[in-house]
Design brief:
- The protein is built from 3 helices and 14 strands.
- It has 2 domains: about 110 residues, Thrombin, subunit H, CATH 2.40.10.10; about 100 residues, predicted glycosyltransferase like domains (Thrombin, subunit H, Beta Barrel).
- The chain is elongated and about 65 Å long.
């Protein structure tokens, strides 16, 4: 699920919940570790993780207070913005057996203070991706040409190894169909061999997902484009942090 600012919200498809004992005991165990960190019984190695337009935002945090299942943490100002946008955060620590997802109850932006509750263990598939992925906010045209089928639209998200094209429905592409993907990037138009993987609904359009088979020249061009998108995304996030637009 994506909100009006293009930020993916928490959904079970993004994070797979894990149960070690049961929900209540797992949460109690998580809070026990956070309490030990707060009381300096174990070193503070806490790291929070959020995503903004697929770009990871990750900074350390300090536990300030714990009461009745609510944990107050001092967080980085950029982290606080993404936490507000996603209404959740991921907590990492070598003292925890798994990553932890927590609901963001409230954020005091001026104090960089976040109140968290509802702690659960999770597995994060996004952490296993081979390639950096970004959601492309600019209108960048792209097309896929196979022998008898064609998909024309705009890039939805992009990585070194694949591209998602937002296009009208109607294509009869078959899984693993091979063809040529044309990417009309701002500085150059490139053609890359591609393989159709799957399509999913994005009413009233469809998102067609392709694997890219790049060479060194195309990899360099794609790398420059993705880096430029990351810079733009982080600049947008910093502006939101500076002017308080969330």
């Amino acid at each position: 699920m994506i909100n009006s600012k293009g930020v993916e919200l928490y959904s079970p498809n993004q994070y797979q919940l894990l149960t070690v004992e049961d929900v209540q005991r797992d949460e109690a165990a998580i809070i026990e570790v956070l309490s030990a960190i707060m009381n300096d019984n174990i070193p503070n190695d806490l790291e929070l993780l959020n995503y903004y337009r697929e770009v990871p935002v990750s900074f350390g945090a300090t536990v300030e207070f714990i009461e009745r299942g609510v944990v107050d943490m001092t967080v980085h100002k950029l982290q606080s913005v993404t936490m507000l946008l996603q209404n959740m955060t991921i907590i990492k620590s070598r003292h925890l057996p798994h990553c932890v997802i927590a609901r963001v109850l409230k954020v005091y932006r001026k104090r960089n203070l976040a109140l968290l509750n509802q702690f659960s263990y999770v597995h994060i598939p996004a952490e296993q991706r081979m390639y950096v992925r970004v959601i492309v906010s600019d209108r960048v045209e792209a097309s896929f040409h196979a022998e008898r089928e064609e998909v024309r639209g705009t890039i939805s998200d992009f990585s070194y190894g694949g591209v998602a094209i937002l296009a009208p429905p109607g294509s009869l592409l078959k899984e693993n169909a091979r063809g040529i993907i044309t990417l009309s990037l701002p500085d150059s138009e490139i053609e890359v061999p591609g393989i159709f993987l799957r399509a999913c609904d994005s009413n009233p359009f469809k998102i067609y997902i392709f694997k890219l088979e790049t060479d060194k020249k195309n990899e360099r061009i794609i790398s420059q484009f993705i880096f430029g998108q990351q810079v733009k995304i982080l600049r947008e996030l910093k502006e939101m942090c500076l002017y308080g637009h969330t």
